Structures are given as C-alpha cells and as structure tokens.
Amino acid sequence: MSETLRPSTLGEILDRTVQLYRRNFWLFAGVAALPIGAMFAIGAIAAALIAAAAAAFRTTNSSSPVAIGFVAVAAAVVVMPLYIAAAVFSYAGLTEAAEKVQRGEKMTIRGVLKSVRPWFWRYLWFLILQGIVTALLPAAIAGVVIGLLMFLIPGVGAAGGVAIGFVIFLIAAGAFGVIIWRALGYSIGLPVCVVEKKPAWESLKRAWELSKGTRGRIFVMILLIIALSTAASLIAAIPFLIIVAVSTSVGNGVTNSSTAFMIAEIVRVAGDFILQVLIAPISAIALVLFYYDQRIRKEGFDIEWMMQQAGLTPPQAESELAAPAFGPGHSQPASSAAPVPDAPDISAPTAPPDTVEEL
Length: 359
Fold this sequence. Notes:
Number of helices: 11
Shape: globular
Strand content: under 5%
Distance between the termini: 72 Å
Oligomer: single chain
Largest sheet: none
C-alpha cells in the first residue's frame, strides 16, 4: 500500500475526500447526475402538467382550484414513486461508488448503479426508517406537546401566555437539537448498510455505536459542506438576477417580462442541477471515510486488514473485508490466505509389509 491504514484527523479525512473526488470525478459526477437529473426532469414534467391544467381550467371552468388540485394529486401519485426511486439510486449509488474507490477498485457509472439494484428495497427501507427515527418521532412528540400548550393559552391570561410561549420555544429548540443529534448519530448508517449489507434496523444500531466519538467531527464536516453549498448557490444566482434585470429594463410590456423570468428560471434550475451534481458526492465520500476511520479506531480494522493481506487469517466474506486501499491500483487480492498442502490420509492405520504368524 502507498499509505498505511491508521486513525485520521478531520483535516486528513477532508484531504482524502478531495483526492478521491478529483481522481474519480467523472464517476461521481455521473452517478450523481443520472438520478438527480431524473429527479429534476420528473419535477419539471409534473410542474408543466400542473401549469397546463391550470391554464386549461382557467379558461373553461370557474371551479379551477378544485380541478387543479385534483391534477396535482394525480401527478404526485405518479411522480412520487419515481422521485423516491431516483433518490435511493442517488444516495446509495454515491455511497457504493465511494466505498469501491476507497478500496482501490475501478468502477463504471453503469456498474455502480447496477450494484445498487439488487439491494434497492433494503436501501429504501433504511432511508425511510432513518427519517422516521431521526426526525419524524421527535417532531411528532414535540408537535403534540406544543399543540396541547397552545390549547391552554386562551385561558391563562397574558402572563401565562408569555410563559407558555417561552416553554413552546424551549420545546421546539430542544426537538431541533434532538433531531440534529440523532442525525449525527445515524449519519454513517448508509455506509454500514452498503458495505456490510446489514438490514436497516441493524445498520442504524451499529451506526449509533460506531459514530460515538466522531459526531462532532461529522458536524463540522456538514457545516463546511453547507457553507460551500450556500456560497455556490449565491454565486449561481447572479446570472438569474442579471437576466431578469436586463430583460425587464430593455423590454416593453408584460410579455417580455414573463419571457425573461422564464429564461431566468431555466438558468436557475440548470445552475441548481449542476451544483447538486458537484456537491452531492462530497458528503458521501466523507461519510464512508468516517465509517472506515471509526472501524480502525474501535475495532482495530487496520491490523485485521494487514493480517488478511499477509495471509495470516483465513479469508472472510466480502462484506466483512470491505477494507480501503489508499491510492489507485491497490485492489483487494483474490485470495489472501496462503495455499495449504494436501494432508496425508491417516483415516486408517497401515500394516507393515511383512507380518509374523502367531505361534
């Protein structure tokens, strides 16, 4: 290996993330672009259908809001499953690609997406269960408590209302903090599910234990990605504002303004698509590296991997040998165990060549 497996600092993990992304840019961009592009296309088609229905009902039917709502619900029923499928292929595909290149394997876009397909339903259930445990349950509990407190406000007077309002604020802030904390605890759950092929609930439990001691570093990494995404979004919004300002100033009438806004909106959507394609792989790669780093820190995975490479331990299943190879060209050997010579057959004793007859 070109580098030794060892515990890494946050800076080293971020540096390794940049290296893997740069060396395999088209792989990650392609894996992110196909599902994200499908998601954008599905959303655009649904919006176009709703807009067309609104225009048609506006000229022919006075009860257009009801009809438009019906069309929107029908479009959501058709579009939502496709959108969810694209999201699963996007998140799981990026994690799969990050895990493969971390091990030094050469992958293609088609190969990565194909490897996600047999495990699609497990990854889908994991993402749903992660959302329920992380956000839905704390938000639902806080919502019920806040609803009960708001029901009491009219009968407690002004001072009591202020006190209850302050309690509601504390409950909402506490629920938000719990959601953030649980999200950090389960953040490496998808790498666990993808690498070790564990069921959804077992992946969540293992991720919660494995992430202990590194959640602060993951939080800093997420903050950096959010800051990068925000800065890139602000820069990407400049062409949108320029097109709207120039077109409306030199144009005349509502028609030109509507055309300018439509062109600017297309430019904005295209910019958002490019940004998501470029930024989405960063968190996937970093979380996979955090997963391996925690295995090295907590389970001695570096020693286990070196023993496997040296042939000192018998080979295990591929899901248990998902070890990183630092640098290109370091792939997992076909067999890490040394060949064992055939043992002689000692199932039955052999008689000597000459026997002596008993007297």
